[in-house]
Amino acid sequence: MLWIGIITYGVVMSAGSRHAAIAATTPPAACFLLAPLFAMANGDPALFGWLTVFSAMLSIASTLTVLGLSNQLFESQQRGRLLEEALYTDSETGLPTRALLKRAGQEAKSRGDGFTFAVLSLDGKAHLRGVLGFEQFAQLTVQAAKCLGEIHDGPVCLISIDTLGLLIPETDATCAVAYAERLRARFETPLSLGGIAIDVSPVMGLAPMTENHASLRHATIAVEQAKAAHQPVAMFDPTAYGDPSGNLALMSRMLNALQNGDMTLHYQPKLHLRSGKVLAAEALCRWNDSKCGAIPVDAFIAMAEETGHIRALTEWVVGRVIEDQRRLEAQGHRITLAVNISGALLGDPQFARWALETVAPCEGKIVFEVTETAVINDPERALKNVAAWAEAGIPIAIDDYGSGLSSLAYLKSLPAKELKLDRSLVGDVANSGKDALLVKSTIDLAHGLGLEVTAEGVETPAALAALKLVGCDWAQGYLLSRPLNLHAFAAFLESFASGEGGVLAEGLQDLNRQRLA
Ligand code: C2E
Ligand code: MG
Ligand code: MG
What is the model's pLDDT at position 493? Predict the structure, then answer.
């Protein structure tokens, strides 16, 4: 209003100039744009007015820029604070996080203070989380952190829902363990959750700072080592864990071995008990490293499974078996060959497809041995793949039956043709009535389900005779032969077929005599 009044006065003063009249009717916010009109109304050159407009716009733009920048600065400071809060404080429990523990470790290190990383798993008994559910368990973890905070000077951080971490201000292993025991002792009094007393039995893993290095990850691994050793507190044991960089090097050497001929296949013959003929064999890989000598199967198969390299190895084995089978056939030996398919591969759809395309054309002469536990681990995908292989005509054998948790339900659901009894089941079959009964009832059950039975680890003539008596279909073991390289295996087949039997043990010759009688 005041502005309009001033302008109207201007109009009156400039004796009703047309320019001043326009200015009078313009909204106040845009008035500075009319400076040229005012100038002209005053009889001055319009340029003066335009200069005024330009400088006004310049000052508005710089004011806006300054305002925007300070806003951005404020926002980024706020964002930084939020990020830091999210990084160092767990939003659900309000506890400090693993990142904060690591930072505390770095700060202690830069101050030159020695320490030991400690990780405490509340779920020592493993079932507590299942009973309480996720949310209640989270509250229990908060309670535990509070209790530790009462006796420990420093942050007690959340590593995962059932795991807390802290820095023990000790570097000496004995002192660190004693400190950890004192922390654990706090849990002799049960925690309280909604008025209910809850007993927790924490397990602690420690990783001391050595050569200026301490790792939270090592402390976490030490928890697993403590659990495995059934101990309440364990210091990280690098020898038990192995050397990760060494493991990787082993795998890259294994991949090289597939190319350079250090990896070979051995074949262990299987005797068909009714016909007395060797009609099948199992392919087993052997790695003879040019530098280190023979590397045990157990040392690299498990590692290959863990690192995903088992696929390359298995594809190599399958390819080699197909080739060897052709070679043997060319020498007059029609023989079924079995390949071990690791559980780690059963759920792999790409491998499943590759195997189907590669092996299905072999008309049932290549068998896939799978372990039952592998199927139990990931039943849905594993069963789907195994079913697809079986449908395409690839015979499936269930390996190592009786070595672990054998489930009859899975026996029924697997489209297998063969059951391989683990050597732990077979070893005492000739000496123990109970074992013989167990083997016989398993064989009867398998036959009832339409499966043929192979006994693994047949080492003595007595075992072979007992197995034949209880209706076993196939025998495999050192009695017949150890696994042989391709050349030796072909020679074995020759001598066996010609009845020389020089390599055969006495029990086997008896068996052949029975067959001929
Ligand atoms: P498996 O499939 O149960 O193979 C049978 C194992 O028992 C072989 O050990 C064989 O040498 C051994 N064996 C055979 N007869 C006897 C006997 O009379 N007495 C005793 N004490 N042992 C006997 P190996 O070759 O050390 O293989 C161990 C395991 O490694 C195999 O068990 C199999 O699970 C795995 N494996 C071997 N080669 C391969 C492979 O190419 N791929 C995969 N995925 N696994 C393989
Ligand atoms: Mg096997
Ligand atoms: Mg086996």
Answer: 96
pTM above 0.70, yes or no: no
Tell me the two tokens of residue 486: 């391709």
pLDDT of residue 516: 44
Question: Nearest C-alpha to atom 4 of ligand 1 is from which residue?
Answer: 284
Pairwise CA distance, residues 357 & 326, whole Å:
18
Residue 448: enclosing H or E segment and its boundaries?
helix 433-448
Report the candidate in 315, 370, 318 with the shortest Cα–Cα distance to residue 341. Answer: 370
3-state SS assignment for residue 339: strand
Ligand 2 centroid–CA 493 distance in Å is: 20
502 touches 492 (CB < 8 A): no
Residue 409 to residue 414: CA distance in whole angstroms: 9
Q: Where are the alpha helices (DSSP H) in 172-243?
A: 173-185, 216-228, 238-241
CA of 265 to the centre of ligand 1 (A): 12
Mean pLDDT to the nearest integer, 374-389: 81
The SS3 call for residue 404 is coil
Nearest alpha-carbon partner for 368 in 324, 314, 408, 411: 314
For the stretch 148-196, pLDDT in tens is: 999 999 999 999 888 999 999 998 889 999 999 999 999 988 888 888 8
- Give residue 194's region: left, alpha or beta (phi > 0; psi -120 to 50): left
The CATH architecture to which 98-236 belongs is 2-Layer Sandwich (3.30)
**Considering all CA atoms of the chain, what is the largest pairwise distance in Å, rounded to the nearest integer?**
143
Compute the distance from residue 225 Cα to the ligand 3 centre, in Å.
28
The predicted model gives 222-239 an average pLDDT of 83
Ligand 1 contact, 220 CB (< 6 A): no
Contacts of 7 (CB under 8 A, 6+ apart): 20, 23, 24, 31
415 SS3 class: coil
The Å distance, Cα 331 to ligand 1 centre, comes to: 26
What pLDDT score does 347 carry?
86
Instruction: Return the CATH class of domain 244-516.
Output: alpha beta
pLDDT tens by residue, 249-289: 888 899 999 999 999 999 999 999 999 999 999 999 999 98
Q: What is the DSSP string of 288-313?
A: EETTTEEE-HHHHHHHHHHHTTHHHH
Q: 284, 366, 368, 428: which to mutate for ligand 1, most atoms within 8 A of CB?
A: 284
Residue extents of the structural domains in the chain:
23-85, 98-236, 244-516
**Ligand nearest to the Cα of 345, by number:** 1
Find the mean pLDDT for residues 363-369.
96
Of 387, 389, 342, nearest to 361 (Cα)?
389
Angle, CA 385 vertex, CA 379 and CA 390 arms, to 5° = 115
CA of 287 to the centre of ligand 2 (A): 17
Mean pLDDT of the chain: 83
Mutate to test the pocket of ligand 1, among 300, 340, 369 (most ligand atoms within 8 A of CB): 340
